[in-house]
Amino acid sequence: MKRNILILFLAFYSVVAYANLDWGGGQTNFISESGLALDRDSGYAVLISVRAGQLIDFETFVADAPIDLVTPGAILSEGMSVNYVLAASREFYSGYLLNSAIPDLLLDEQQLLGVAPGEDLYVIVWDANTFADGLPTDDSYFTVLPLYLEGNSNSLQAQTSSGVVSFFSDLVYPDQLLQSQGLQLLAHYAGFNTYSNFAGWAESSYSIADGSVEAVKYDDSNGNGRSNLEEYAFAVPPTMNRSYNASSGEAGSAGVPILYQAELYVQLRASDPLLAYSLEISNDLKAWKRCALAFFNNQWSCADEALEVTSSVYQGKGVWSIAVVNHQAVQSASFFRFSVLDSQI
Which of 239, 269, 270, 274 is nearest to 257 (CA)? Predict the structure, then answer.
Protein backbone atom coordinates (compact mmCIF):
# COMPACT_ATOMS: atom_id res chain seq x y z
CA MET A 1 0.00 0.00 0.00
CA LYS A 2 2.76 2.42 0.90
CA ARG A 3 4.55 1.64 -2.34
CA ASN A 4 1.45 2.49 -4.39
CA ILE A 5 1.00 5.80 -2.58
CA LEU A 6 4.61 6.72 -3.25
CA ILE A 7 4.23 5.95 -6.95
CA LEU A 8 1.10 8.09 -7.19
CA PHE A 9 2.83 10.94 -5.36
CA LEU A 10 5.75 10.94 -7.79
CA ALA A 11 3.46 10.67 -10.77
CA PHE A 12 1.53 13.73 -9.60
CA TYR A 13 4.62 15.90 -9.32
CA SER A 14 6.03 14.70 -12.61
CA VAL A 15 3.34 16.68 -14.46
CA VAL A 16 3.57 19.86 -12.36
CA ALA A 17 4.90 22.95 -14.16
CA TYR A 18 7.80 24.31 -12.11
CA ALA A 19 6.89 27.98 -12.43
CA ASN A 20 8.98 29.47 -9.60
CA LEU A 21 12.28 30.92 -10.82
CA ASP A 22 15.51 30.52 -8.90
CA TRP A 23 17.91 32.59 -10.99
CA GLY A 24 21.55 33.53 -10.71
CA GLY A 25 24.95 33.32 -12.33
CA GLY A 26 25.66 29.61 -11.88
CA GLN A 27 29.35 28.90 -12.43
CA THR A 28 30.09 32.18 -14.19
CA ASN A 29 32.53 34.54 -12.53
CA PHE A 30 31.69 38.13 -13.46
CA ILE A 31 34.55 40.58 -13.92
CA SER A 32 34.05 44.35 -13.75
CA GLU A 33 35.25 46.78 -16.40
CA SER A 34 38.31 47.46 -14.24
CA GLY A 35 39.19 43.76 -14.15
CA LEU A 36 38.08 43.05 -10.57
CA ALA A 37 35.56 40.42 -9.51
CA LEU A 38 32.14 41.85 -8.73
CA ASP A 39 30.94 42.01 -5.13
CA ARG A 40 27.81 43.34 -3.43
CA ASP A 41 28.98 46.92 -3.84
CA SER A 42 30.07 46.73 -7.48
CA GLY A 43 27.62 44.21 -8.98
CA TYR A 44 23.99 44.71 -9.96
CA ALA A 45 22.02 42.07 -11.85
CA VAL A 46 18.53 42.18 -13.33
CA LEU A 47 16.37 39.36 -14.65
CA ILE A 48 14.81 40.28 -18.00
CA SER A 49 12.04 38.53 -19.92
CA VAL A 50 11.00 39.13 -23.52
CA ARG A 51 7.25 39.73 -23.64
CA ALA A 52 7.10 40.54 -27.36
CA GLY A 53 9.53 40.80 -30.24
CA GLN A 54 13.14 40.22 -29.21
CA LEU A 55 15.70 41.27 -26.63
CA ILE A 56 16.32 45.01 -26.82
CA ASP A 57 19.82 46.15 -27.76
CA PHE A 58 20.79 47.83 -24.49
CA GLU A 59 23.84 49.49 -26.06
CA THR A 60 21.57 51.66 -28.19
CA PHE A 61 18.37 51.69 -26.11
CA VAL A 62 17.01 55.00 -24.81
CA ALA A 63 14.95 54.28 -21.70
CA ASP A 64 12.34 56.73 -20.49
CA ALA A 65 14.48 57.03 -17.36
CA PRO A 66 17.68 55.20 -16.32
CA ILE A 67 15.94 53.84 -13.21
CA ASP A 68 13.71 51.73 -15.48
CA LEU A 69 16.71 49.63 -16.49
CA VAL A 70 17.19 48.26 -12.98
CA THR A 71 13.72 48.40 -11.39
CA PRO A 72 11.58 45.22 -11.10
CA GLY A 73 8.24 45.74 -12.78
CA ALA A 74 9.58 48.24 -15.34
CA ILE A 75 8.40 47.81 -18.92
CA LEU A 76 11.01 48.51 -21.60
CA SER A 77 9.71 49.07 -25.12
CA GLU A 78 11.48 49.68 -28.41
CA GLY A 79 9.54 49.33 -31.63
CA MET A 80 7.72 45.99 -31.58
CA SER A 81 9.93 44.62 -28.78
CA VAL A 82 8.68 44.65 -25.19
CA ASN A 83 10.98 43.52 -22.35
CA TYR A 84 10.15 43.26 -18.65
CA VAL A 85 12.45 43.71 -15.67
CA LEU A 86 11.36 40.85 -13.40
CA ALA A 87 13.83 40.96 -10.52
CA ALA A 88 17.08 42.50 -9.33
CA SER A 89 19.92 41.22 -7.16
CA ARG A 90 23.22 42.41 -5.68
CA GLU A 91 24.16 39.01 -4.26
CA PHE A 92 27.63 38.95 -5.79
CA TYR A 93 30.42 37.24 -3.90
CA SER A 94 33.93 37.03 -5.39
CA GLY A 95 32.41 37.51 -8.83
CA TYR A 96 29.62 34.95 -8.52
CA LEU A 97 25.94 35.87 -8.61
CA LEU A 98 24.45 33.38 -6.19
CA ASN A 99 21.12 31.63 -6.51
CA SER A 100 19.27 31.79 -3.23
CA ALA A 101 18.05 28.78 -1.26
CA ILE A 102 14.51 30.19 -1.57
CA PRO A 103 13.18 30.93 -5.07
CA ASP A 104 13.93 34.52 -6.07
CA LEU A 105 10.81 34.98 -8.16
CA LEU A 106 7.75 33.03 -7.02
CA LEU A 107 4.75 32.23 -9.19
CA ASP A 108 2.51 34.72 -7.38
CA GLU A 109 5.11 37.47 -7.87
CA GLN A 110 5.21 36.67 -11.57
CA GLN A 111 1.44 36.87 -11.73
CA LEU A 112 1.52 40.33 -10.12
CA LEU A 113 3.97 41.38 -12.83
CA GLY A 114 1.70 40.02 -15.53
CA VAL A 115 4.27 37.44 -16.63
CA ALA A 116 2.97 35.15 -19.35
CA PRO A 117 4.28 31.65 -20.13
CA GLY A 118 6.92 31.29 -22.82
CA GLU A 119 8.90 34.52 -22.21
CA ASP A 120 12.63 34.05 -22.90
CA LEU A 121 14.84 34.85 -19.91
CA TYR A 122 18.09 36.83 -19.79
CA VAL A 123 20.32 38.26 -17.09
CA ILE A 124 21.94 41.67 -17.40
CA VAL A 125 24.88 42.22 -15.07
CA TRP A 126 25.92 45.83 -14.48
CA ASP A 127 29.14 47.26 -13.10
CA ALA A 128 27.65 49.48 -10.40
CA ASN A 129 30.97 51.27 -10.03
CA THR A 130 30.21 52.86 -13.41
CA PHE A 131 26.78 54.11 -12.30
CA ALA A 132 26.02 57.78 -11.61
CA ASP A 133 23.92 58.54 -8.54
CA GLY A 134 23.19 54.83 -8.22
CA LEU A 135 21.80 54.43 -11.75
CA PRO A 136 23.12 53.40 -15.18
CA THR A 137 24.41 56.22 -17.32
CA ASP A 138 26.04 56.66 -20.71
CA ASP A 139 29.36 55.44 -19.33
CA SER A 140 28.06 52.32 -17.55
CA TYR A 141 29.39 48.86 -18.44
CA PHE A 142 27.34 45.68 -18.52
CA THR A 143 26.97 42.24 -20.05
CA VAL A 144 23.86 40.35 -21.08
CA LEU A 145 23.53 36.55 -21.15
CA PRO A 146 20.72 34.12 -22.02
CA LEU A 147 19.60 31.80 -19.22
CA TYR A 148 19.16 28.04 -19.48
CA LEU A 149 17.50 25.48 -17.26
CA GLU A 150 20.30 24.40 -14.90
CA GLY A 151 22.75 26.11 -17.24
CA ASN A 152 22.32 23.45 -19.91
CA SER A 153 22.89 25.35 -23.16
CA ASN A 154 22.26 22.16 -25.15
CA SER A 155 18.58 22.54 -24.29
CA LEU A 156 16.24 25.39 -25.20
CA GLN A 157 16.67 28.79 -23.59
CA ALA A 158 14.93 29.10 -20.25
CA GLN A 159 11.44 30.60 -20.33
CA THR A 160 8.74 31.58 -17.90
CA SER A 161 6.13 28.87 -17.39
CA SER A 162 2.69 28.48 -15.89
CA GLY A 163 0.95 25.91 -13.72
CA VAL A 164 0.04 25.14 -10.14
CA VAL A 165 2.29 26.21 -7.31
CA SER A 166 5.01 23.64 -6.70
CA PHE A 167 7.51 22.85 -3.98
CA PHE A 168 10.11 22.87 -6.77
CA SER A 169 11.60 25.72 -8.80
CA ASP A 170 13.22 26.17 -12.16
CA LEU A 171 16.93 26.73 -11.58
CA VAL A 172 18.03 29.05 -14.38
CA TYR A 173 21.48 30.52 -15.01
CA PRO A 174 23.92 31.11 -17.91
CA ASP A 175 25.67 28.34 -19.78
CA GLN A 176 27.37 26.23 -17.10
CA LEU A 177 30.46 25.96 -19.33
CA LEU A 178 30.95 29.73 -19.19
CA GLN A 179 33.56 30.11 -16.48
CA SER A 180 34.03 33.90 -16.56
CA GLN A 181 32.46 36.92 -18.20
CA GLY A 182 33.83 40.44 -18.45
CA LEU A 183 31.52 43.46 -18.48
CA GLN A 184 32.65 45.09 -21.71
CA LEU A 185 29.43 46.39 -23.28
CA LEU A 186 28.95 50.13 -22.93
CA ALA A 187 25.46 51.57 -22.44
CA HIS A 188 26.02 54.66 -24.57
CA TYR A 189 22.40 55.78 -24.28
CA ALA A 190 21.32 54.75 -20.79
CA GLY A 191 22.07 58.03 -19.00
CA PHE A 192 19.45 60.13 -20.68
CA ASN A 193 19.21 62.42 -17.66
CA THR A 194 22.89 63.41 -17.58
CA TYR A 195 23.14 67.21 -17.29
CA SER A 196 19.38 67.51 -16.76
CA ASN A 197 19.72 71.26 -16.25
CA PHE A 198 22.05 74.17 -16.89
CA ALA A 199 23.27 74.25 -13.29
CA GLY A 200 24.64 70.71 -13.48
CA TRP A 201 26.37 71.41 -16.78
CA ALA A 202 27.86 74.71 -15.60
CA GLU A 203 29.22 73.17 -12.42
CA SER A 204 30.77 70.27 -14.34
CA SER A 205 32.15 72.34 -17.24
CA TYR A 206 33.32 75.50 -15.48
CA SER A 207 33.05 74.72 -11.75
CA ILE A 208 30.35 77.37 -11.41
CA ALA A 209 28.55 77.13 -8.08
CA ASP A 210 24.74 77.01 -7.94
CA GLY A 211 24.48 80.51 -6.53
CA SER A 212 26.24 82.02 -9.54
CA VAL A 213 24.57 79.99 -12.30
CA GLU A 214 21.89 82.50 -13.35
CA ALA A 215 24.40 85.35 -13.44
CA VAL A 216 26.70 83.61 -15.93
CA LYS A 217 24.15 82.17 -18.39
CA TYR A 218 25.00 84.81 -20.98
CA ASP A 219 28.70 85.10 -20.15
CA ASP A 220 31.33 83.75 -22.52
CA SER A 221 33.39 81.88 -19.93
CA ASN A 222 35.88 80.36 -22.37
CA GLY A 223 36.10 83.29 -24.80
CA ASN A 224 34.98 81.33 -27.84
CA GLY A 225 32.29 83.79 -28.92
CA ARG A 226 29.39 81.74 -27.56
CA SER A 227 27.49 82.27 -24.33
CA ASN A 228 27.39 79.53 -21.71
CA LEU A 229 23.69 79.01 -22.42
CA GLU A 230 24.39 78.50 -26.14
CA GLU A 231 27.14 76.00 -25.40
CA TYR A 232 24.85 74.10 -23.04
CA ALA A 233 21.75 74.14 -25.25
CA PHE A 234 23.58 73.15 -28.43
CA ALA A 235 25.91 70.66 -26.70
CA VAL A 236 29.11 71.90 -28.35
CA PRO A 237 30.29 75.43 -29.17
CA PRO A 238 28.85 76.11 -32.66
CA THR A 239 31.44 76.91 -35.34
CA MET A 240 29.21 79.24 -37.41
CA ASN A 241 30.14 82.91 -37.80
CA ARG A 242 28.61 84.84 -34.90
CA SER A 243 28.37 88.06 -36.94
CA TYR A 244 25.21 86.74 -38.59
CA ASN A 245 23.41 86.50 -35.26
CA ALA A 246 20.60 89.06 -35.07
CA SER A 247 19.04 89.45 -31.64
CA SER A 248 15.47 88.23 -31.42
CA GLY A 249 14.72 90.71 -28.66
CA GLU A 250 13.32 88.00 -26.40
CA ALA A 251 14.53 87.54 -22.84
CA GLY A 252 16.40 84.34 -22.31
CA SER A 253 16.97 83.56 -25.99
CA ALA A 254 20.13 82.72 -27.86
CA GLY A 255 20.50 82.39 -31.62
CA VAL A 256 22.77 80.22 -33.72
CA PRO A 257 22.72 81.45 -37.35
CA ILE A 258 23.55 79.10 -40.22
CA LEU A 259 24.05 80.08 -43.85
CA TYR A 260 21.74 78.33 -46.30
CA GLN A 261 22.47 74.67 -46.89
CA ALA A 262 20.43 71.85 -48.46
CA GLU A 263 20.58 69.95 -45.18
CA LEU A 264 21.40 71.32 -41.75
CA TYR A 265 23.00 69.47 -38.85
CA VAL A 266 22.88 70.60 -35.24
CA GLN A 267 22.99 69.10 -31.77
CA LEU A 268 20.18 69.81 -29.30
CA ARG A 269 19.71 68.88 -25.68
CA ALA A 270 16.42 67.07 -25.02
CA SER A 271 17.09 66.24 -21.40
CA ASP A 272 16.14 69.71 -20.12
CA PRO A 273 12.39 70.43 -20.38
CA LEU A 274 13.02 74.14 -19.74
CA LEU A 275 14.71 74.59 -23.13
CA ALA A 276 12.41 75.42 -26.04
CA TYR A 277 14.05 75.24 -29.48
CA SER A 278 12.93 76.73 -32.77
CA LEU A 279 14.30 76.87 -36.29
CA GLU A 280 14.10 80.24 -38.02
CA ILE A 281 14.27 81.14 -41.72
CA SER A 282 15.11 84.51 -43.26
CA ASN A 283 15.97 85.92 -46.68
CA ASP A 284 17.38 89.21 -45.40
CA LEU A 285 18.72 88.47 -41.87
CA LYS A 286 16.14 90.92 -40.51
CA ALA A 287 12.74 89.26 -40.67
CA TRP A 288 12.67 85.71 -39.38
CA LYS A 289 9.98 83.07 -39.82
CA ARG A 290 9.91 80.77 -36.81
CA CYS A 291 9.10 77.06 -36.66
CA ALA A 292 8.96 75.43 -33.23
CA LEU A 293 10.87 72.18 -32.84
CA ALA A 294 9.01 69.46 -30.94
CA PHE A 295 10.50 66.45 -29.21
CA PHE A 296 8.20 63.45 -28.79
CA ASN A 297 8.73 59.69 -28.62
CA ASN A 298 12.50 60.12 -29.05
CA GLN A 299 12.09 62.04 -32.31
CA TRP A 300 12.41 65.71 -33.26
CA SER A 301 9.96 67.31 -35.67
CA CYS A 302 8.96 70.71 -37.05
CA ALA A 303 5.38 71.86 -37.60
CA ASP A 304 6.19 73.73 -40.82
CA GLU A 305 5.59 71.44 -43.82
CA ALA A 306 8.41 73.13 -45.72
CA LEU A 307 10.92 71.93 -43.14
CA GLU A 308 11.57 68.25 -42.46
CA VAL A 309 13.66 66.72 -39.69
CA THR A 310 15.15 63.82 -41.61
CA SER A 311 17.24 62.34 -38.82
CA SER A 312 17.15 62.23 -35.01
CA VAL A 313 20.15 60.38 -33.57
CA TYR A 314 20.82 60.16 -29.85
CA GLN A 315 24.45 60.95 -29.05
CA GLY A 316 24.38 60.25 -25.30
CA LYS A 317 24.29 62.52 -22.24
CA GLY A 318 20.90 63.92 -23.23
CA VAL A 319 22.11 65.24 -26.59
CA TRP A 320 20.49 64.59 -29.97
CA SER A 321 21.97 65.24 -33.40
CA ILE A 322 19.33 66.21 -35.94
CA ALA A 323 19.33 66.86 -39.68
CA VAL A 324 16.85 69.30 -41.21
CA VAL A 325 15.95 69.73 -44.90
CA ASN A 326 14.27 72.84 -46.29
CA HIS A 327 11.97 72.00 -49.20
CA GLN A 328 11.49 75.64 -50.17
CA ALA A 329 13.42 77.19 -53.04
CA VAL A 330 16.76 78.79 -52.24
CA GLN A 331 15.45 82.19 -53.27
CA SER A 332 12.63 82.13 -50.72
CA ALA A 333 14.76 81.20 -47.72
CA SER A 334 18.43 82.07 -47.80
CA PHE A 335 19.42 81.87 -44.16
CA PHE A 336 18.65 79.67 -41.18
CA ARG A 337 19.26 79.88 -37.48
CA PHE A 338 18.35 77.79 -34.47
CA SER A 339 17.26 79.62 -31.36
CA VAL A 340 16.60 78.46 -27.84
CA LEU A 341 14.40 80.01 -25.18
CA ASP A 342 15.11 79.30 -21.54
CA SER A 343 11.66 79.31 -19.96
CA GLN A 344 13.20 79.59 -16.51
CA ILE A 345 14.05 83.24 -17.16
Answer: 239
Length of the chain in residues, anyone? 345
β-pair partners for 31: 37, 182
The alpha helices in 147-209, defined as continuous H runs, are: 198-206
Query: pLDDT tens digits, residue range 213-271?
Result: 677 777 777 777 778 888 888 876 544 433 333 333 343 445 554 455 556 778 888 76
How does pLDDT run across 160-171, given as a tens digit for each residue?
Answer: 875 445 567 888
Diameter of the chain by CA atoms?
102
Say how far apart CA 35 and CA 44 lie, in whole Å: 16
Q: Is the pTM above the cut of 0.85?
A: no
* Category of 12 on φ-ψ map: left (φ > 0), alpha (ψ -120 to 50) or beta: alpha
Q: Distance between CA atoms of 36 and 198, rounded to whole angstroms?
A: 36
- For the chain, give every domain's residue range: 15-186, 233-342
Per-residue exposure over 64-78, b if at least 16 CB sit within 10 Å of its own CB, e if not: eebebbbeeebebeb
